[in-house]
């Protein structure tokens, strides 16, 4: 096992010390390792999350046209990629922002990114759309979109950020009261050491299980700041509502039953919160805040720092920065959505870079199936031209964490 520094990253940052060898990125076999390789993101289509509330058909308040308009909004954000070879790529990033935009989104060449809706007068799932979807289900979907209407105010999102900031500003002794145990991921701390050649992230984290409610480990939930618990629970409930709508909308947009994805998570699906703290680093050219990885979740929703950038996604073998938009949520599809969709939806490879000027905060919520609930590709996505690409799995979170620390791609280990 490598010899680890006696100081943590916050102490080394305050002293502007050179990062020890265990933090130096030594290359990556599945993604470019140039820490400065980044360019601006391409324009994303615009999705209004509030439109998807019409998918809650049990209320009986929505018409076929309203439902189809909402689904067409989501379809307009899909970018379908030919899948001549079924290989792993990074895909499916949704950025959720509160912003009034009247212009039709266009690509780099000025072409509209809104899909033309086939003319039809009968069922909102007419033959034209069925034919479109049948063809698309043999392709790979890249989803990148701005989405409005997530229902959280600027002041509330600022409150979530400020709560995280107040915790990380506490003295080390106070934060250590909520420290994780050696072989546990929950609690406050840094990387769990699982490999002698492991490269450490330049960050501290507070990881807490929020749902199921009776599985919360209350001894790890901070008492300071005083509003920490109520703020996290309120935020988690709001985000869970957004996730529920996204699962339904994505299923319906592909002509599936609403619960085709969400139904695999079980009655006691997990939601973890991860508060991330990235101190300043004297060598951002050598050290990463988070190593390249895909998320293990079905959906991840991230609240970024209000001012400091750091998140990057891999697009066409280049690292592309995700700009900071103060009232935005970043939504990533994770590996378990990739498994359930039989590779049609793909989770984006992403990382977090460091900087030498400003500390950075973020808050991520991860939604996962019950650990003992088996998930697998939806039957509708498997046929002779596209057989099952992944085996059914349980407790994928454990598989992912071990692979991440060893520098492996977890989704590769469950391929058939």
Automatic annotation (TrEMBL):
Residues 269-369 form the Fe2OG dioxygenase domain. One of its GO terms (molecular function) is oxidoreductase activity. SUPFAM superfamilies: Clavaminate synthase-like (SSF51197). It comes from the Eukaryota. Keywords: Iron, Metal-binding, Oxidoreductase, Vitamin C. Belongs to the iron/ascorbate-dependent oxidoreductase family. This is Fe2OG dioxygenase domain-containing protein. It comes from Jatropha curcas (Barbados nut).
